[in-house]
Specification:
24% of the residues lie in helices and 48% in strands. The protein has helices spanning 3-28, 52-59, 121-129; strands at residues 29-36, 39-46, 64-74, 82-96, 101-108, 111-118, 130-138, 147-157, 170-177. The protein is elongated.
Length: 180
Amino acid sequence: MSRRTFVPVIALVVVLLGAQAHAQDSDAVQIVPLVRGEEVVVSLELTSGYTEEVREAISTGLRTTFTYNIDLRMSVAGWVDRTIATAVVSISDQYDNLTRRHSLQRVVDGHIVESLVTEDEAVVQQWLTTLTRLPLCDTSTLDPRRDYYVQISATARPNGSSLLGWTSAITAQSKFTFIP
């Protein structure tokens, strides 16, 4: 194989591997965008985010935080997609080894919206990996019959732990058409 044909083959392999990695990422997050009344809300589940590595990091007493960057974007053909709304959700767990209790906290765009203390690890797992009906924006900001998508980027800290064995963020998206 000559050098001229070798370089495009390598580029094609890199593109295919990147597409496969992106497909794996999107399978790791289930996203459900809904138009409820006059609001766009999103629910999501990080299906395999609560790994043994995350569980071990929590059990040491290290503060463990899952951060979800959520964008609502409008698809624009032949141009850069327009961002309609964004939200940053951080869910943290601070485990106390002495009392064996988890102190959970949910922060949306810098504001604490919910706190909980529990001893139940199943509750901790659900809190860290699930968001239900998070309001993103009013429907008045959307154009009728346009294509939109919700894009999620999820990361876990401390840095030693990673979601699903990856060290970088997991990203996924879900498309929908707004019909009033």
